[in-house]
Specification:
homodimer; 352 residues; alpha/beta; Four Helix Bundle (Hemerythrin (Met), subunit A); Rossmann fold; 2 domains; four-stranded mixed β-sheet; 39% helix; 17% strand
Chain lengths: 352, 352
């Protein structure tokens, strides 16, 4: 096989020509590759809310561009108010992924540093910063990939949950980036992709990425993970994260905790792959991570068709929290962090 | 609320008028209540294979009637051959549920006892036996329900996986029967119904039964069970079984083992509700239980619409095995069996 184009998948793009943000509409994958043109901040916010763009790093980068989008057409008189409103609108989209808040705070620093230059110059600086954030995210993921690939032994069958791939980032992916790097280094046997109900990010998005990358994989239902592990068919688990607390507790897509508990029972190492922008030193433990509850009909309906009785109500937690003791290592761009996590995280965040 | 008709749901019926077996087509629930008319053994076998009728006790009762169906139009000269073929056809439908084999063996005893009376008399005896089996299954379930309800404390929030309800039996249900009895005795707080991918027996069938019974419930994805338990929202788990080995290891719908591991971690009692006909003394442990692997497209497609990439292959284990050490008790019609299960099971099977 020729060397695959590992970061060919990029779900976020800025169009200088149209002065707008382009987002690959992930709700339509794998059937359609349709790009949303976001010309107003409401377009960006709606895309984040409805999961057209999703994954903590991708949300962060989209929000950075969203700040630029929000200043479109602003005047020197009102652009501070517009910036505040834009930031507020974006910040209200989803509560769990900390990269969103992180990007908005970094963006405000850029804004404040250039606000006295007037709206056009300030917007240009924000755009430059957002583009830089995007390209650095890809580079971060490639470094994480290399760091994580070293953990693999030849022939490893690795399981991943949800999609922490190129689609969840500016490109290359976090957990899937690690898997791609291990594959490129010839250490990967096979990937188990769990479907990740209710929105099937595994079946739709990770499977799609595996196809694009030419990585051997099999799809399973979320509830098959126990059976796979009890049969000795899983050597390793790598997942992404939406927020890692200061003590290493990690929030990720609902079902991640279940996989971690099973891995623990079966002695399968369970890794979280997350850039430092996903680690929040201001969240002491997983108990303080806000968990989004999404609409009941994501569970009760499927592709617009109701599957359960008309009266059925679902409880739809979007994320769960995996406690640090179940995590064998946190793969970051500055190395693989190990327990005790309070200390390894503090050191990692203090690095340049 | 008035007393609900607890065994109003009955998925299997014999029509004397049309001399055929009627099966509620469970693949169409909850949208449509359509009855299949099975006039040939192939109709019964196909209904079992495609899960129009499913659940270990319901498969057993359907197979019993299937033996009667198979003798339709047989002559005194060929009815033994027809019986053998019928039994073989039915026995080849699904490998895991032991009630199927159990019913076919009991049916053969009836056949042998009356074969010398000629085909019509023998068929009449088989029909009488099948009807008796059906009504005894309902009675068994009611007794199991009472036995299991005693385990509940007031306000208990109970989780069940898949559908071990009236639809999985001749009526009343095993795990759902226990839940219904606990509800009737005023001890039930709420039921957590997990959807049970890939075929959504929880979302489609158990939710439908909850509505019919007026029992308060909430639907969750399979992968939410860990989050529910870590939040202290589950007091008890009750599931059915497709086969219980002589040592108490229990095969049940894929995902059951995962629920059991989570229950174990969170100190939530995990019960299996199963009649003695589901216990197989000839299967020493769970390792010897054959696990059916079903079509990939049950996972990759949904309602006829493909959700994953065209090339995606799934691994679709239909069942998994929960080891006896994770089971707090096996609720049967002769009481709640406890560890050591080899002994309690031997005693239970020896009772009249």
């Amino acid at each position: 096989m020729s060397t695959p184009e590992f970061h060919a998948i990029a779900p976020i793009s800025w169009s200088d020509e149209h002065d707008c943000l382009l987002l690959l509409d992930q709700t339509l994958l794998p059937d359609e590759e349709t790009w949303l043109h976001c010309r107003q901040v409401e377009d960006v916010a709606a895309a984040i809310k409805r999961l057209s763009v999703r994954g903590a790093p991708a949300i962060g980068v989209s929000a950075a561009y969203g700040l630029v989008v929000g200043l479109h057409g602003a005047s020197d008189d009102d652009f501070r108010r517009r910036f505040d409103e834009t930031s507020e609108t974006l910040g209200a989209t989803r509560p769990t992924a900390v990269n969103l808040r992180w990007a908005l705070e970094k963006g405000r620093e850029v804004f404040e540093a250039h606000a006295d230059e007037g709206v056009e110059a300030c917007r240009a600086k924000l755009l430059e910063w957002a583009k830089d954030l995007q390209s650095r995210d890809v580079q971060t993921n490639r470094t994480m990939g290399d760091n994580g690939a070293h953990l693999f032994q030849e022939g490893d069958r690795v399981l991943t949950h949800c999609n922490a791939g190129a689609l969840a980032t500016a490109g290359y992916g976090t957990a899937v980036g690690v898997i791609a790097s291990a594959f490129r280094e010839g250490r990967l046997g096979q990937v188990w992709v769990d479907e990740t109900r209710p929105l099937l990010q595994g079946a739709r998005l990770t499977a799609w990425e595996m196809e694009k990358l030419g990585i051997p994989y099999r799809l399973v239902t979320d509830s098959s993970v126990g059976a796979l592990m009890s049969r000795g068919l899983v050597d390793r688990v790598v997942v992404g994260a939406d927020r890692v607390a200061a003590n290493g507790d990690a929030a990720n897509k609902i079902g991640t905790y279940t996989v971690a508990v099973l891995a623990n029972r079966h002695g399968v190492p369970f890794y979280v792959a997350a850039p430092r922008s996903t680690i929040d030193p201001r969240t002491p433990t997983g108990n303080e991570i806000p968990i989004e509850i999404r609409d009941s009909d994501e569970v009760t309906a499927f592709g617009g068709h109701r599957v359960s009785p008309r009266e059925t109500e679902a409880m739809n937690f979007a994320f769960d929290v995996t406690p640090n003791e179940l995590i064998a290592g946190i793969i970051t761009e500055v190395g693989v962090l190990e327990a005790p996590y309070e200390e390894s995280i503090r050191r990692a965040l203090a690095m340049d």
